Amino acid sequence: MKGPLFYSKILLFGEYGIIKDSKGLSIPYNFYNGALKTNGLQSETAIKSNTNLKRFVDYLKTINSELVTFDLAALQNDVDAGMYFDSSIPQGYGVGSSGALVAAIYDKYAFNKITVLENLTREKLLKLKSIFSEMESFFHGKSSGLDPLNSYLSIPILINSKDNIEATGIPSQKSDGKGAVFLLDSGIIGETAPMVSIFMENMKQEGFRKMLKNQFIKHTDACVDDFLKGDIKSLFSNTKKLSKVVLNHFKPMIPQEFHELWKKGIDTNDYYLKLCGSGGGGYILGFTEDIDKAKLSLANYKLEVVYNF
Q1: pLDDT score at 190
Q2: Residue 69, CB half-sphere, CA atoms under 13 Å: how many?
Q3: What SS3 class is residue 244?
Q4: For residue 172, what is the DSSP state?
Q5: Contact 168/257 with Cβ under 8 angstroms?
Q6: Contact at 8 Å (CB) between 238 and 219?
Q7: Which segments of the chain have a pLDDT < 70?
Q8: What is the pLDDT of residue 205?
Q9: pTM given for the model
């Protein structure tokens, strides 16, 4: 048995801000994916995944049954028979590895599940998001539920605020466009929980809260609007502002060896970097008006283009 594929995601804008009601824009990223499998449990990775699933099943038994119910007997049987999540999605890279797993489990084992084929009203999207938030909390301690939602629906999601999310269309890519969004591999595995706790600790300071509202959220919201409207000139101007704010106020989330590189992008305008997910390692997200320039400037790093303007 091999289940359907669930894809990774990229939160283009909104990391940290969405905790405090900024806008956000999340898109599926089909380069990586994962599926549930029940045959060939030999590799170390498969065995580790199966062990994790056993713990996840125990956790799912404790979820409020008014929110969601699962065919736990079937799930337990499959896990006991060696089921694992076969995934190419790198873990700790900010592209939603646990989100895809949560989506796959919900898809296969949830009773009365909401499907992509239905009319996805705001209520249904919010219900899915709260189910996924509850499920994914097993992996992160506190989850917004957005990663699994994106993976499950495989469509771009616009977050207007915590209680207002909608499926959205994004401008179609120009395959020959020079402008690009890219992923830069930091070569370090990031962990979400410690980064989120640093953020929560910072939120206790009034100065940090003010900066978040007046700068970080303001620029994030502007970037989302620009991107959806296809206003590239304004998008790059706002992304530069956002990149500066992150460098000045989110230093712990940027691996030390990337501080200079981050600043270089802002100074030269060759590219602008921002966090991809919670930071601390994994991928860093880059925006550039000229991908050839950015590649030259970042010649020592591995870049993956995810979207062309």
Answers
A1: 87
A2: 6
A3: helix
A4: P
A5: no
A6: yes
A7: 1, 40-41
A8: 96
A9: 0.90
